[in-house]
Amino acid sequence: MGISIMMRYMDPMLGGISLVPWLENGGSLAIALIRGGGEQGPDWHEGARQKKRQNSHDDFIAVSEELINSGMTKAEHLGVFGISGGGLLAAVVGIQRPDLYAALVSDVPLTDMLRYPKMGMGGAWKNEFGDPDDSEMAKVLRAYSPFHNVREDVKYPPLLVTVSTTDDRVGVGHSRKLVAKMRDAGVSNAFLYEAADGGHNVSDPLKNDELMSSRIAFLMDALQ
Q: Which of 41, 47, 111, 210 can bridge 174 by disulfide, Cβ–Cβ 3.0-4.6 Å?
């Protein structure tokens, strides 16, 4: 969404102090700078906007494949964590390429890309994602919309979706719907953590230690 990720040690966007037990237990952190952000200027952002959105997902998948092919890790030790638009990304790549990952954490995500303008403040993001009321754009959105692409008889990696009831930015419905859809498809390891407060910034490592510790415990258990 044109947002640049700052490379700051223990940045809250990357998990903050909750990363300490992960790193102390031998975990590593890789940050994929993919098209759609603002790190390389306007063209870098434009390369994954609206009908080009899949480029962002493909970039992330390519980074994941390189981590595995280069011997830096194995699929059974590779997890994904993303916030907001990154939460959408985590859900997308996990559903498109479940073979690449052993755990998915999707924080305050968009998941229903055909109804996102009707939830939270989604109507303000049509310029970024496109208008699902346009028939051609709807085809593009549906092709990667996590909610619409969950399938039965697919072995998905364990999924933890975290959200707050008071999130009025993306709307809590996205998280609830995705987990319910996966459960209906027979996925037993899809979990929803819904905090009563916290809004869209529910993953504040200094204010919501219960959520952060639950997330790290989930990742450590799934990726050991």
A: 111
Taking only the tens place, the pLDDT of each residue in 9-62 is 667 667 777 888 888 989 999 989 899 988 888 999 999 999 999 999 999 999
pLDDT band at 5 (very low <50, low <70, confident <90, very high): low
CA dist 175 and 110 (Å) reads 7
Q: How many CA atoms lie less than 13 Å away from 190 in the CB half-sphere?
A: 22
Residue of 18, 56, 84, 175 with catalytic role: 84
Q: Is-catalytic flag, 135?
A: no
Prediction pTM value = 0.94
Strand order through the sheet with 159-164: 79-83, 103-107, 159-164, 190-195
Return all residues near 46 (Cβ < 8 A) that are at least 6 apart: 52
Burial class, 130, CB count within 10 angstroms (exposed 0-12 / middle 13-18 / buried 19+): buried
How many whole angstroms separate alpha carbon 116 and alpha carbon 106?
Answer: 16
Mean pLDDT within 94-115: 98
Please say if 200 is a catalytic residue.
Answer: yes
Per-residue pLDDT, averaged over 114-125, amounts to 96
